[in-house]
Write a structure and sequence with these properties.
Elements: H1 2-16, H2 18-53, E1 58-62, H3 65-70, H4 81-93, E2 97-103, H5 105-116, E3 133-138, H6 144-151, E4 157-162, H7 164-206, H8 208-216, H9 221-256, H10 261-264, H11 273-302
Antiparallel strand pairs: 1-3, 1-4, 2-3
Helix pairs in contact: 1-9, 2-7, 2-9, 2-11, 7-9, 7-11, 9-11
């Protein structure tokens, strides 16, 4: 009987404040969708880092005749055969080095022509202008500075480059977008909480006569508060469900179909459906508990029971 009464009160409250309840559902849905999106964005950045950092190399570019005439680091002349042998031997001695690949000027020229054959400058570049290099694969890409410190400024070495720097700008951009999403999510969350508190107070005020009678007949505080708390929790649950749908639809259209980033950016290792499904329970739980807690706190002060 009590459960039936509580459920009937929930229905009455939702009907009386239908517009505000809808506003709560929308604001909770948007804030939780941004929250879930931020979590997935962070997972995407982590996945891309793991994928690309495992593939990038440290490149040690060697001085050629052109560098000897123009670059201060190559003032002593082009790299000699003995210097190349010594550099390769020292690289292979390092514990952090997984493999070393030597790329000749002819190989570098061939790769350059394959990548930039359509550009105007490609027609005037000659093989002797290309730099020889060592492509170094590290066991731990984070230890790039060990190689840079050991070989930068060494005889015959023009520069030491970490290919991670090429990707870092992309990762920084994605992290910035993630922070922006979290900021908007926080703003939407505050708006949702304010709407929840206001909705609960309006509902409690409209039913002050019923709550007064319940208080007079000895109803417990928890029993009086329960319908209001469950109204907020129900609205939050609907908002969480809508947020889950938005995340699923977003993953479907952005990556698999519609925009189809997976087809257009085949070199990017996108997160899978398992990552999305792992976030959904958290979104539902937060959508259920957050409004219920906000309503409970608001009622303790408003009803004074």
């Amino acid at each position: 009987m009590r459960a039936q009464f509580v459920l009937s009160e929930i229905g009455v409250g939702l009907r009386r404040n239908l517009t505000m309840t809808f506003a709560v559902i929308v604001s909770v849905a948007l804030s939780l969708a941004l929250f879930g999106g931020a979590l997935l964005m962070r997972e995407q950045v982590s996945t891309m880092k793991d994928y690309w950092y495992d593939k990038v190399n440290v490149s040690i570019f060697l001085c050629n005749k052109t560098d000897a005439a123009t670059a201060a680091k190559c003032a002593k002349g082009a790299v000699t055969g003995q210097q190349k042998e010594q550099i390769e031997a020292d690289l292979k001695k390092m514990d952090i080095v997984e493999s070393v690949h030597y790329e000749s000027a002819d190989e570098a020229f061939k790769h350059y022509k394959e990548q930039y054959s359509d550009t105007a400058i490609a027609s005037i570049i000659t093989p002797d202008q290309m730099q020889e290099s060592f492509r170094v694969k590290l066991k731990d890409p984070e230890k790039y500075k060990v190689v840079a410190t050991a070989f930068a400024g060494r005889g015959g070495v023009e520069s030491v480059q970490d290919q991670r720097n090429i990707l870092q700008n992309l990762f920084d951009l994605m992290n910035g977008m993630n922070i922006a999403a979290l900021g908007v999510m926080a703003l939407m969350l505050i708006i949702a909480l304010m709407l929840i508190v206001n909705t609960v107070r309006v509902s409690a005020f409209s039913r002050r006569r019923e709550t007064g009678i319940m208080r007079l007949v000895g109803a417990s505080s928890f029993y009086i508060q329960m319908p209001f708390i469950m109204e907020a929790a129900f609205a939050g649950l609907l908002g969480g469900a809508v947020a889950c749908v938005l995340l699923l639809v977003g993953r479907y259209f952005l990556i698999d179909h519609g925009i189809a980033l997976a087809e257009k950016m085949q070199l990017v290792n996108f997160i899978g459906w398992d990552s999305v499904f792992a976030v959904l329970p958290l979104v539902i739980v937060i959508g259920l508990l957050m409004p219920a807690l906000a309503a409970f706190i608001a009622l303790r002060k408003y009803l004074k029971v």
